[in-house]
Amino acid sequence: MENKKANILVVDDTLANLELIESMLAEQGYDVRPFPKGKMALKAAFNDPPDLILLDIMMPEMDGYEVCRLLKEDEKLREIPVIFMSALTETIDKVKAFSTGGVDYVTKPVQFEEVFARVKTHLRLRQYQIDIEKKNRELQNTLHELRDAQAKLIQSEKMASLGVLTAGIAHEINNPVNFINASSRALKIKLSPVVTLLEQISREHESQKINDLIHQFKQDRSLKTLINAISELTSNICTGAERSIQIVKGLRTFSRLDEAEKKKAVIHENIDSTLVLLHSQYQNLISIKKEYGDIPDIICYPGKLNQVFLNFLKNAVDAIKSKEKLEQDESISIKTYVFEENNKKYVAVEISDTGTGIPENIMDRLFDPFFTTKDVGKGIGLGLSISLGIIESHGGKIDVKNKPGKGACFTMYIPCESSD
Ligand SMILES: Nc1ncnc2c1ncn2[C@@H]1O[C@H](COP(=O)(O)OP(=O)(O)O)[C@@H](O)[C@H]1O
Ligand SMILES: [Mg+2]
């Protein structure tokens, strides 16, 4: 505004004064629009909002207070600074002048220096305000962009961890399905003579002949072996089906990551379904030791917590697998309990491992985004920073330490009572 000509609207019913101010300001390089009446000035302001308004108070038809009030009602004109003018002989109601929205006032006959100084000050203040509003909008935009980028990062970490798991999950599902397949084929073979016998029986009407058929069937084979085989095969099928259901349930629970609403969740079920998904990564190498305590259900974003459990468990598996030599008794311990601090109750979930442990010199950087010690393709370093974000969004916190023996121990504390 300082660079380009500021546009000033002057309103005064005393023509001599109007002309004086107009020429005075025009001489200073301002673009001036003079009006003898409030209504005309308002119309002009609506059509082309000025940068500042000099407004006489005492005017017939519509006085300056009313003009100002109408200006302040309009969204577009509200912020334009209004400087009131009043004759020295009039008693000006200063409170009213300010409360209707004026920023300043001068007395008539006007002093050239005074008007000029006040106009300049208020134009500058208005410019600062415009600049701040612009900066504010820019900041808001940047914040939105940041939030967007963060959401995308979280999504990509989720996809990356799902990617790692997909191969394992396919294998996991394949196992029980093959098991069901093989058992049901064998069962069909075993049942085939039974079905034939039933068909023969269904065609016979004489009891004697039916008895003979059964007798013959019994003599031809060991019924005990047959019964054992049928019972074993059916139970294999049930086990396989049960396992498939568990895996699918685990996948379902896990893929609820984007749920926007908080829900009541049984934390142990969530941990278990995450373990099902990771099973192929640790089976035969690492044993899982559970010490589940008596904890309440909590209101949380269950899908997001699953992502956290997966991150910690996967890190524990990685830390163990990266050891030079694996021991017989490698394990991951999962302990849950209620923790109280400052009268606030938390559900604590402690995940510790017998892995490499964390070198002291990187302890401070663990939760930094993109901090990783893993090879390209093995980790992108977002797991812990995202987990911390998720736990903090629940009003909780995460502790990390190395265990005295060997290995790392992460504990997350999630408030029992939802904070919102
Ligand atoms: N259980 C653990 N034992 C040892 N080091 C760990 C453990 N969990 C995390 N870390 C260290 O923290 C780093 C960051 O972990 P994370 O944010 O999950 O990213 P990423 O797993 O992709 O590397 C890991 O690269 C590793 O050095
Ligand atoms: Mg990780």
TrEMBL record:
Q: Which reaction does it catalyse?
A: ATP + protein L-histidine = ADP + protein N-phospho-L-histidine
Question: Keywords, A to Z?
Answer: Coiled coil, Kinase, Phosphoprotein, Transferase
Domain called Response regulatory: residue spans: 7-123
Q: Name one Pfam family in it.
A: Response_reg
- What's a Gene Ontology MF term here? phosphorelay sensor kinase activity
The coiled-coil segments of this chain are 125-159
Its Enzyme Commission number(s) read: 2.7.13.3
* Domain Histidine kinase residue range list: 168-418
SMART domains reported for this sequence = HATPase_c, HisKA, REC
Task: Kindly give the InterPro entries that the UniProt entry links to this protein.
Answer: CheY-like_superfamily, HATPase_C_sf, HATPase_dom, His_kinase_dom, HisK_dim/P_dom, HisK_dim/P_sf, Sig_transdc_His_kin-like_C, Sig_transdc_resp-reg_receiver
Q: How would you classify this enzyme at the top EC level?
A: transferase
Recorded hits in CDD domains, A to Z, give: HisKA, REC_PA4781-like
The protein's superkingdom reads Bacteria
Tell me which residues bear 4-aspartylphosphate: D56
Q: What is this protein called?
A: histidine kinase
The taxonomic lineage of its organism, from the top, reads: Bacteria, Pseudomonadati, Thermodesulfobacteriota, Desulfobacteria, Desulfobacterales
